[in-house]
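Objective 1b of the project was to move from sequence-level analysis to a structural picture of ligand recognition. The entry below was assembled by the postdoctoral researcher (A.K.) and checked by the PI before modelling. It contains the amino acid sequence of the target and the SMILES of the bound compound, zinc ion.
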Amino acid sequence: MGAQSLTIGGLTKPDRAARLCEEVAVATTTLEVRTPAGTVPVTVVRKRVKNLNLRVHRDGTVSLSIPMRAPYAVAQDFLDRRAGWIAAHIERMRGRADARERANATADGLVPLWGRLKPAPGGAKEIEALYRREVARALPGAIARGEARVGAHAAGWQIRRMTSRWGSCTPARRTIRINSALAAYPPECLDYVVVHELTHLLEPSHNARFHALLDRFCPRNREIARILKRPAATVASNLLG
Ligand SMILES: [Zn+2]
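Corresponding predicted holo structure:
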């Protein structure tokens, strides 16, 4: 399940594969659009694109990429005209996020935790709280190991519930966000995402240099990235069998 996207003047390109993290954009600003469901902030990114491309992401956030020289007034007008579409797709993404969280619990009341199936602590809210607590407990160790491997230090870390990315890095502020849902996967997955995001402090984009560095800091990165594309409950069941 990818982000809902709408491109004007070109092909619609749904973002099928969940990206590990967002590539660093050239310039961003935030505009607001009034929709039937309330005022929605939209991250507007200038890119080397020909078209305006509007996306409602899986976590319900909205972004718009615009050509380098397009005025923000054009972007605002574009958003205002699509207020209804934006509200409808945010609503749809929220419904999917709730369904995914319910799907995390298996039929026999088990949830994946660090790659093992454990008794569920309750409903979706309790599972989310458990994951957040577990990542908060494990993160300092993962940061210490990651910083030693990468040789870079982040100024701040946040644990966030995200539905489209495992982590993200803002190199300019040296801040990193880590997805609380990583607690569902084997512990090496958290280590990998920490190393991946720290590597962005050395190389912001996903270019050849980035992958060469990542291969050095985390030789199993490709294998672990593949694990993170699978549902956590499947990964945990396979470990049991
Ligand atoms: Zn990345």
